[in-house]
Amino acid sequence: MPAFGTLATPVGVVGVVSDGVAITRVTWRSTPPEGTTAQPDPLLAEALAQLAGYFAGTLRRFDVPVDLGAQTTATRAVLTALHETVGHGETITYGGLAARSGTDVPARAIGSIMGANPVPLIVPCHRVVAGDGLGGYSGGDEGQGLETKRWLLEHEGALPTSLF
Per the residue annotation, which of 125, 128, 152, 153 is the catalytic one? Predict the structure, then answer.
């Protein structure tokens, strides 16, 4: 049975699901998804420790295995390119990620792929921005997506800290 655990962060409670082999979900929720147990497995404990390190500013790259689940070939290629090539403190535009992925996915469709990312933070969809601003973000507590994205990018040093 998959294990579920949570971590309180500056951008809300993050929930993590592990199947013991890979991290399968990262969400902003504190209630366990149906079919999970609160008994942590070693991988879940490691993922939560790495997330705590990320939010403490001591971890810059996650190295826990992830399972993206059932995805189209193009979606998998885009998320893999993001995970493997856009590092801490970096950003890439939707169009830049479309080109980097080697797929024929248009830049406009990259946002939908980011919204389907099952493991945000670990696969850093918050680092994908519009050519003329932040773009969108569905992570964080409800209604706080862009504030969460801004906080994460400021935390990584990709954006200057807000004055307000």
Answer: 125
Instruction: Taking the CA atoms of 119, 113, 10 and 53 in sequence, report the sign of the dihedral they define.
Output: positive
Q: Which residues, at least 6 apart from 49, have a Cβ–Cβ distance to it below 8 Å?
A: none
* CA atoms of 113 and 117, how far apart (whole Å): 6
pLDDT by residue for the chain (164 residues), tens only, comes to: 999 999 999 999 999 999 999 999 999 988 888 889 888 899 999 999 999 999 999 999 999 999 999 999 999 999 999 999 999 999 999 999 999 999 989 988 999 999 999 999 999 999 999 988 888 888 888 888 889 999 999 999 987 776 55
Can 38 be counted among the known catalytic residues?
A: no
First to last CA, the chain: 44
Which residue type does 146 have?
L
